[in-house]
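I am going through a labmate's work and have reached the protein record below. What it holds is a sequence and that sequence's fold in token form. Please read both lines and tell me whether the tokens look consistent with the sequence. Do not assume that whoever made the record got everything right. Thanks in advance; the entry in question is below.
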Amino acid sequence: MPSDLCWELGRPNPRQAEFFRAQTRFVAYGGARGGGKSWAVRKKAVLLAAAHAGIRILLLRRTFPELRENHILPLLTELKGIASYKETEKAFRFANGSRLRFGYCDSESDVLQYQGQEYDVIFMDEATQFTQYQFSTLTACLRGVNAYPKRMYLTCNPGGVGHDWVKRLFIDREYHGRERPEDYSFIPARVYDNEALLKNDAGYLTMLEGLPSDLRRAWLDGDWNAFSGQYFREFSKEIHVTEPFDIPAHWRIYLTLDYGLDMLACYWIAVDEQQRGYVFRELYEQDLIISEAARAILERSPEKPDMILAPPDLWNRRQESGKSVADLFEENGLLLTKTSNDRIAGWMAVKEWLYPTRDETGRQTSRLKIFPQCPNLIRTLPALQYDPQRRGDVATTPHELTHAPDALRGFCVYWTTAAAAPKRKKAVWPEDIWEDYHNADEAGRDYLIAKYGSPF
């Protein structure tokens, strides 16, 4: 920047300073609201552009109006005389050749406009408003032949369509495939870190502290297990995930599935004498044709299920063959039973199964328990959000989150019966044992029953 011009950085709080210094490939900053995330994004973007000649920076929000209000308008004032804004490009150009461009991804298809482009730095402001597909597509733009180390900076709060993938990568730190733990870092921020906000707007903290419990946990405390819009607020790993055990042979076994070419989600659920359900096995695989799906289910099911539940759309007949998916499953050895297609009633049934109660010791429990061997069900249930367009329904996007819960919904809405305790077979005693029994005292009779079995 020209030597005769001065740009005011301001004084970052300790968390913002940590964000400025972070050097992993992917850095997430946030958690609670009011932590000064947008300010930190603007300042860091300008610092990088001014300090490194010729680099390309992309700053994204979900919608352009948000982008304009939160970043473009403040920077038009801050960078006056320092960088020139090109309205047609939606970008600031710096004298050293660096460029700070602004973009948005309102729908999933909007991200395709960035394919083939190269950036040294990408900022995703409010990253939990982006889907995993948008994030993954944008990571492919993080490249170039210059020596500047490529970085992606994300700000985030609990909630939104991207809650699940942000939480997985930066909070739970669960990595798949070629994802490397050392590439990811998270810097937590809370309103208490933002001294400027607390000094100038004390009412904001009062508002956060007065929110309902779930919103307060998400917005004030930055609790990633509670967020606004969460459909299954009843779900808790502490309550619903249980240590595995051997399923008694007399319990009823239900198999419930959701099938499409994009995903087969299948669960084995045991029901005990008190009508409590235990989800004890998971099959979650992509791109299986029906014969492959049936074979995968049969291979994983040594016990014969009492019933295989499936959604009604699998009975729709195909025009080319006149057969339904259910017909083809039956030809491959699986006879399906049609469950309800009422989504809202189904989700209400899931809520009933998840509803926390107290056991005889006073500890919280629930009618439904899930074994750790079902990680995708455990992952997706708490990530589902309300559908903003249909009261009482679950949002169908991101679609990947719906497969496992849809399969569970089919089971919960179906009327299940309690397992019957096995009937004890009476022992057959010869005459001499009966004679000994009649002549014995109480201790002797107990001994004979223990030795020969009860004839009663």
The chain has a mean pLDDT of 87. The longest strand covers residues 252-260.
